[in-house]
Amino acid sequence: MVARQFLEFTGKELRDIKLEDILLWLESYQLRSASQNTINNKLAAIKSLFSLAMKTGYLQDNPAALIKTPKAKDALNERILAEEDIKKLMEAAHAGRDKTFLKLVYFLGLRVSEGLGLNWSDFRENGQEVMVNIFGKGSKTRTLIINQLLWQEIQKLPRSDKTEAVFLSRFGNRLDRHATHRMVKKTAERAGINPHASTHWLRHAHACHSLKNGAGVELLMKSLGHSSLAITSRYLHVQPDECTSQFINLDDG
């Protein structure tokens, strides 16, 4: 798809394309205000195209190899909802499935796929706590804990003969990502918070708020199901209300 779009843009055969053609194509995305991540993905596809053409002997030169991939801006700090915004979101959510789903995702820091993939058999009561088996990326499983109050709220959700899923669509099937995305957008709009908010922002918020309230980064790594501490450590640097400037005295004299 990307290769075809690129060739249509240049109007040339692959062997006739020069460095300037690639740069003009990338610039066309900048003019359309595409994100750096999007542009980098396009460039990666073109680099792969030229590399393949070189390996097969179709080309002798690779102009794409002359282009360095720019480092994308880390906009994680722009996707962190403040605790007050989380409160507004929960208050604006419709009671029942929507509010319970948002609470659970935020409380445990789940990926949207992990929340939607939950089955009733994934919950196990253990005294005052309830253990939840989470099936994450790479078929990795981790066990997290929710309190009785949230568990009682979850137990009030309707069940279906069609599926063991905890979160259901209005037709009694497992709730899907598209419906969830629309629900979060509409809820954020009613709450008057950042209109770009998504379910994954709740996972980011869980991470930052946990660290802010004293959680250790290694515990957070295990809870989020990250493969390395380096990934989790990003959250140490994105607190929007914390900065070393608080330790700098600008008073004259």
Question: How does this model look, in words?
Answer:
Helices cover 47% and strands 7% of the residues. The protein has 253 residues and is mainly alpha-helical. The chain has two domains: 2-66; 77-237, hpI Integrase, Chain A (Orthogonal Bundle). A three-stranded antiparallel sheet has the order 1-2-3. α4 crosses α8 and α5 packs across α9 (199-212).
CATH architecture of the largest domain: Orthogonal Bundle
Q: What would the principal axes of the Cα set say about the shape?
A: elongated
Q: How much helicity do the residues have?
A: 40-55%
User: Count of DSSP helices?
Assistant: 11
On the 0-100 scale, what is the average pLDDT?
88
- Binned strand content: 5-15%
The N- and C-terminal alpha carbons lie at a distance of 63 Å
CATH class placement of the largest domain: Mainly Alpha
Tally of distinct domains? 2
Find the structural class using helix and strand composition.
mainly alpha
Domain Tyr recombinase: 76-248
Pfam family, one: Phage_integrase
InterPro entries: CB, DNA_brk_join_enz, Integrase-like_cat_sf, Integrase_catalytic, Integrase_recombinase_N, Integrase_SAM-like_N, Tyrosine_recombinase_XerCD
Organism: Crocosphaera watsonii WH 0003
